[in-house]
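Morning run. Coffee first, then this:
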Amino acid sequence: MPSAGKRLFALINYPRTFPVYLCTMCSRQKHLIKADVARWNEINGITFSLFKSLNWYMTYKKEFRNLIQHRLKNPSRTALSWIHFAIARILWKPLETLYINTEDIGGGLYIQHGFSTIISAKKIGENCRIYQQVTIGYRRDASPPVLEDNVSVTCGAKVLGDITMHSGSLAAAGAVVLKDVPENAIVGGVPAKIIRYKDEDDIWFQG
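And here it is:
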């Protein structure tokens, strides 16, 4: 349960969050934002309503601000979506070292810290998890990577080039992933190789 002081400070920020909430409700990305909030609540053990959850993460999680602002302007990039984006960015300063350059992102993306992270994938599936100091992007190929559903890229890992991390796979800390990763495989090292496969009792399988 959050402390009384944190809850009070979040309450004070309701007026700042309400315009962003209205933009969210009008956005074509509303269903994805709802999925993001549900996933963040699941991981953080939060049971607030949609508005209270949105306010909580906008107040205390800068990386969440980046994600919502990205959602509001993508993929349509219409005049209205840019207005929604501008409102959210003016009211809530994003994490300046987190860059999200992927238009096709499934719901439930969770960004853990997000410091010094670049996300330039061709596509990201549902319920993926990306940590700090991660680079997902190009190598010498014309296309960046694809991350399927429930993929995790942990701290300091690099996923580069025209490859696919298949569903449920995980890049361990500091891994440099240059080849396709099979389903539920954990890869590590430079260059990354398969360390083992997940099982139902694995903490990574559950989260």
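The chain has a mean pLDDT of 93. Good start to the day.
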